Structure formats: C-alpha cells, structure tokens
C-alpha cells in the first residue's frame, strides 16, 4: 500500500465507478471510458487503489497472458490516454497527484468514498455494526449501499484474473447485502413490506437458503403460516430433485418452529421496535 495525501475534488463523493459502466463522474455526470482495454486499465487501477500495479499484472489483465509485441509501449499509451482524461476532467494537479508512474508500475490514489465499490463496502460495514442495536438504521445504510449499483460490476471489461475475481467478490457482496437488508427488516418487525421483494429474490437465487428462511419468517409473521410452510416445501423439492440433498439443518429447524408456532418467531428485539416506530 502506497500511503499518500490526496486533494479531494470539491463537491464530489464518488468520482470513480466500477459498478455499471466503468468510468469517471464529474458534476453528477458519468464520463464513460471508450475502449475495452482503456476500461480494463482503469478498473485494474481502481481495484488496487493505493497499491502499485506492476507492468506484468497489467499485461495479464489487459492481454490475458498473450504475448504482445511492444507491450510496454502499448501500456504506456493507455496510461497516457487515461492521464489526459483525468487532466481534462479534473485538472492537471489532480492528474499528476492521483496517477503516479513508478519504476515497477503505476498506482492510482483515491479516497475510499471516491470509488463506488469502496464506498459500498464501507456502508455495508457500518450497517453490520447496526444490525443488532438498530436494525432500521442498518436497513437504511444497506439501502444506500445498494443504490450505488446501476449495472453489473465492471460492465464492458473482460480483464484477467484480478478483474474476474473482483466481479465474483462484489456480486457475492451485493447478494449478501440484499440478504442483510431483508434480515434487518425482519429483525425490526417491519417485514410485511418486503415479502414481494423476498419472493422475487428467492426465485432468482433458489440455492440461497437464507433468502428462503427470511421469506418463511416474513410470511409467518404476516399470518400466513400455510404459505410459509409451502415455501419450505418448494425449496426442499428443488434441492432434492436437482441436487439430491435435503435442506440445511437451519432451514429444517425454522420449518419446525413455524409448524409449532414457536413463540421465538414472534419476538422482535425491543430496540428494533423502538427504531421502527421512532
């Protein structure tokens, strides 16, 4: 990690985008990056913000290990074009301060809140700290985090292993954040309004049992015990028929609790009730 003080851009929070079209944001307007390799270059720098990306790593991401004639010259041309775009968009001082050439490679300096993906991670971390004491606040933070997504991760980027692993990481993080948001609603006792969203997500991601669990609880708390049990049976049939396996012990226990009208299913933590009504 290369620690460096950077001058913030006045009036901007997110100025670099990895969600949706990879590009820059200036004055609230997206400046999309033209050319797949140019987008891959920026994405690689942003994924490693504050860290040196070696020329060898760039070669792997930009050309996926293929031997390219005059690869150094091609890389330099891409960096020069990006630096010119930064200079045109944010000024010469910004370009000189943020995109730095080193003997071993290049580094782009950015504050975490200036990159949508890094801001997303910070908001999710703040939400996790609030899930217990204030689930409504956690829900709001997760909503804010998820609103940063306006398209697939690294849209328009092919890239090598670094970009591919980042896509998988952020897609999983997004699904986990969606689950956490539903969980916060259920804990706060305000699950009624999310049943339709839960149904949609459970259909899109049938193997994520946590979604099925929360849908079952939400249905049960809304007075729909039969629907909750029906949801369990749908999940069980799918798992047995397609994977040859039974639902997890967690989901089976939840089904039994719903079947037996377990009082614990009706409990909403006092802090959750206060936050929901406050």
Key phrases:
disordered C terminus, 278 residues, three-stranded antiparallel sheet, AfsR/SARP family transcriptional regulator, transcription regulation, mainly alpha, Serine Threonine Protein Phosphatase 5, Tetratricopeptide repeat, transcription, single chain, OmpR/PhoB-type_DNA-bd, 59% helix, BTAD
Could you please describe the fold and organization of this structure?
The protein is mainly α. Among the domains are: 16-114, Orthogonal Bundle (Arc Repressor Mutant, subunit A), CATH 1.10.10.10; 191-278, Tetratricopeptide repeat domain (Serine Threonine Protein Phosphatase 5, Tetratricopeptide repeat). 59% of the residues lie in helices and 7% in strands. The protein contains 12 helices and 6 strands. The chain has helices at residues 36-47, 55-63, 71-90, 92-98, 116-130, 135-146, 161-188, 195-204, 209-221, 225-243, 249-259, 270-277; strands spanning 16-17, 23-26, 29-32, 53-54, 99-102, 105-108. It has a 3-stranded antiparallel beta sheet. It has a 3-stranded antiparallel beta sheet with strand order 4-6-5. A hairpin with a 5-residue loop joins strand 1 and strand 2 (23-26). Mean pLDDT is 89; it is low at 269-278. This is AfsR/SARP family transcriptional regulator. It holds the Pfam family Trans_reg_C. Belongs to the AfsR/DnrI/RedD regulatory family. Keywords: DNA-binding, Transcription, Transcription regulation.
